Amino acid sequence: MHGELSLRLVRLERSRVRALALIEGKDGVQLNRPPAPGKWSALQVLHHVVTAEALTLAYIRKKQQAGAALPAASVASRLRLLLVEVALASPLRVRAPAVTADVPQQLDADGLRARWDDVRRELAALVEAFPNEFIDRLVFRHPYAGRMTLAHALGTLEAHLEHHVRQVERALSVLA
């Protein structure tokens, strides 16, 4: 596995462990209660994150089939990642793309965790088997920022998760 991909995957998993620790030991009622009208509950936020990761994985798998026909990355890919990181670290709110914004009203924490485990296993397998000759190819298209490499896609997932970890913390602190 390429070193940068491995490092990004480890950092992404650390963020996931932090997110799951926030909901550990909490009851389903608290985890499913929105902190305010029109806001997502802690589990709805995490459902959104898992859905985004699953869709990212599926998109990369599909694009990977293009092989050498994939466009090569440029400095623009790195700039797109920086744009996403800055946007997600800022207080600005960006509407979630429709495909990830549809969240159920009630969720089961154990079921969500199991689904996330599956997605992460598949993501790790993809990263492990990712061909070195595609490292600098644009295999992912962020809905707002555009096309990126796999490493930058993983960085985007990490920034996205960290943004939502803060949202889960806020949702749970309001209800405490």
DSSP helix count?
Answer: 7
Average per-residue pLDDT, rounded, comes to 92
Q: Give a count of the beta strands, DSSP E runs of length 2 or more.
A: 2
SSE order: HHHHHHEEH
Shape: globular
Q: Could you tell me the radius of gyration in angstroms?
A: 16 Å
Reading side by side through the largest sheet, how are the strands ordered? 1-2
What multimeric state do the chains show?
A: single chain
Can you give a write-up of this model?
With 176 residues, the protein is mostly helical. The protein is built from seven helices and two strands, in the order H-H-H-H-H-H-E-E-H. The protein has a two-stranded antiparallel sheet. Strand 1 and strand 2 form a beta hairpin. Helix 1 packs antiparallel against helix 6 (109-129) and helix 4 (75-89) runs parallel beside helix 7 (150-175). The longest helix has 26 residues, at 150-175. The protein is globular, with a radius of gyration of 16 Å. It starts with a helix and ends with a helix.
Jot down its keywords.
176 residues; mainly alpha; two-stranded antiparallel sheet; 7 helices
Structure, briefly:
With 176 residues, the protein is mainly alpha-helical. The chain is built from 7 helices and 2 strands.
